[in-house]
Write a structure and sequence with these properties.
The structure is a single chain. The protein has seven helices and four strands. The chain has 155 residues and is mainly alpha-helical. The strands form two sheets. It has a two-stranded antiparallel ribbon. The protein has a two-stranded antiparallel sheet with strand order 3-4. The chain is elongated.
Length: 155
């Protein structure tokens, strides 16, 4: 996002000619940083300098950002529950979910982790059921989901 870029421009650590920061496109962010779905905070993987420097330089837990992530994940889960209940899925729920999945919306990192790494059987069933009820979900997330090689998605 624009705020992360501003932080990076002001302080871009280089070590042995290599950038120390995680690049959100060239690197797999989930190999370095996870998201706490309860608090919304960024969790750099332990003992990983690139992760901890990225959280610091990009200021990933600045001001209201953790609360925004937490709220985003809550909205997405709630909308997936509505979709998973089956037909007919209310048109306004479909519109809201499509809007939440728009690639220009903030806080997609926490949603990406939720979609790629559901925690437990219940979350996997929720995702499968919602996708079965609203197959367009697949096309909405395709521009930004980028499952890592070897990760089957949908789950």
């Amino acid at each position: 996002c624009r705020d992360c870029q501003a932080g990076k421009l002001a302080d871009f650590p280089i070590e042995q000619g290599e950038a120390v920061l995680v690049h959100p496109v060239n690197d797999e962010p989930l190999d370095y940083i996870r998201w706490d779905g309860v608090t919304g905070r960024a969790l750099p993987l332990p003992s990983n300098r690139r992760a901890s420097e990225s959280v610091r330089v990009y200021d990933l837990d600045r001001a209201l950002l953790p609360a925004e992530r937490k709220s985003k994940l809550h909205r997405v889960r709630a909308l997936l529950v509505v979709c998973a209940r089956g037909a007919p899925v209310p048109a306004d729920a479909i519109d809201q979910l499509r809007d939440e999945f728009d690639k220009e919306r903030p806080c997609l990192g926490v949603v990406r982790e939720f979609l790629l790494s559901p925690r437990g059987h219940q979350e996997r069933v929720l995702l499968r059921s919602a996708i079965r009820a609203v197959p367009d979900i697949l096309s909405w997330v395709r521009p930004w989901l980028r499952p890592p090689p070897g990760v089957a998605w949908p789950v």
